[in-house]
Give the backbone structure.
Amino acid sequence: MSHRHRTIRTPSASRDAETSAAVPWRRSTPWLPGGALLGILAVKLVVLGQLASHPLLQPRGVLDDAVYLKLAQRVASGDLALGPDVYYLSPFYMYFLGAILAAGGSVFAARAVQVVLGSVAVLLVGLTARRWFGARAAVAASVAAALTGLFTFNEVLLLQSSVDPFLSALALWALACALGGGRPSVFLGAGGALGLLAVNRPNVLAAVVLIAAAWAMLRPSRAALVQIAALALGVSLVVAPVALRNRVVAGEWALVTSHGGLNFYIGNHEGARGTWSQVPGIAPSIEGQSRDATRVASAALGRPATSLEASDYFYRLGWQWMRDHPAAATGLWLRKLALTFNATDLALNYSFTYFARDERTLLGALAVGPWLLVPLGLLGLGLGLRHPGGASYASWAAFVPGYAASLVIFFVSSRYRLPLLVALCIGTGHAIDWAWSRVAARAWRPLALAGAVVAALGAIAWLPLEADVGRMYERTEQIVLAITAGRDDEARMLLADTEARHPERALLLYRAGRAWQDRGENASAVPLFERALAANPGQADIRFSLGEALLALGRAADAVPHLDAARQAGVEPTSANLDLARAYAALGRKADVSLALRRVTLPDGADESSVMALGAEALGAGDAALAEQVARRSLSKRPTSGPLQELLGMALMLQDRRADGEAALRESIRLDPSSATAHYHLALAEAQGGRFAEAVRLLDETLRLKPDYPEARLLLERLRTR
């Protein structure tokens, strides 16, 4: 019996053997020439030049990019703690952007840096594909990544997604280096890269757990446990400072952010469709969600809730709905799984579809997307399970189901899927390489079977799931911008063309109405608010804005039911009650005025203008006791405030406590000698006390400070002619 000579091969030698059998190039052959990398960068820079100044992409209002820019500017100015609360947004990007601004860079410079990092991401995708599958797969994966328009589009935005391609590619490359035979120090570095991605995308921690579990099961050994510990330590070294900051600054142990509960509820409640949707009573903005989530939870719990308690409250709501509706919850999770691997552009803030199809940019030529990456990427990743690396590759590939599961748990959007698409680019490179080899070998049967798999996966990718691609949202923004700029005819034409096709007609009409309201054009805003309310009768925000607009037009009786409904729903409680008081005052309902004013609960940190507004309304309603109470409570925290001393003095005078009132008014003038109103009110007090000479002197000073003060001039004339 003869025995063949058998050579013992290391995993890397096996990989080299497989590569040399499949790929006719040497491993030393450059797979991505420098010129190609520069070409990729050039294309991205052209897109940057086309979109950087686009009016729809400027950080403004309450959109996420405006909030990120505001936080980054605080970082650049030295406010590194960003207190006083737990991080509501993932912190990596705000510090990344803040560092660029602190170094003297501009918003455009930040976008340029992001584009450079995006080009490096293409290189890292190729390096990872080359490590697992060889040079030809590296070229195919790099081309797929370079032609994926979603990457380039996000890289020119001021959002955390702008660095997702780079951070994901870095993490996957570092992980491949570690699992492919790296020492514990390499696992430590891979953990650090995954930690950076987690500080930008906290849900990636679910993938990290699955990767570690797969490695422990497929390589059960002491060495594997040491490597897992090194990986975990690397993640911890990046994430722990974030958790520590939350504890020190906010007094709560939050691993990264506090918005997980609300996001969980958005993705798991009655009527959820698997994508972002507005929660009743919570404003559709980052700052609104941060503020209103705590307020809604506090109202439900019957006590003030912290950020984490609010998050826990919404987690409980989501889980309770799932327990009560298991069939609906199962269907919803299956829908979210389909959305995760669907070709539809699930827009959030900005629509890639709009800018690729409706605007003249190079994005239209960057046609690779989920429609191609999902079927080819999943095929390639699945074929890779036969990789000679075995456990190493399978543990690396666990990133895909782990990250996909983290999306299904919450909700799905295009920008949240970017890390998944990076991994699918690597799988796509392998699928193309594999198919090329089979064609060269005329292996038609496996090609036919793979074609059937691709067709099945493609059918899933193209399922008509009726998800909004965001094009109408961008139309809405165009309308708002036109109104803001005073181009009313253009705005009305766009509105008429968009309204019938908009998936959220009420939101479109509300946004347009708010734009006219912000311009003071309440007569134009009211019909839009009324149509928006008819389209969505349960939306209290619309009723609040409609009530304010009606009140501004002098239609107090029409405003009252809308303002009262908004108040009961908890929308802008301070403003709603103040507006209600003004409406009741216009209707002569004095008892209701006082009731509305006494329902106002100003927070301890309320600004002076809010306090003065409440005090002025109380004085106008004849409720001097309430005005005194408001003034004294605020003066306990702002004892040097001249306006608050003036408010106190007026309240005391109206209660016939003249000596105390005059003393408060004099103190007000001492604190703020430039206040014309304080001089006038003290002059009134002096005149009422018969001290006419002093009253005249004070009125002269009033008119010097404010020559166009008719009440002071009239009183002065009366005193001089008495």
Q: What stands out?
A: The chain is about 70% helix and 0% strand. The first helix runs from residue 11 to 22. The chain has four domains: 32-255+347-460, 260-340, 608-663, 673-722. Residues 260-340 form one domain.
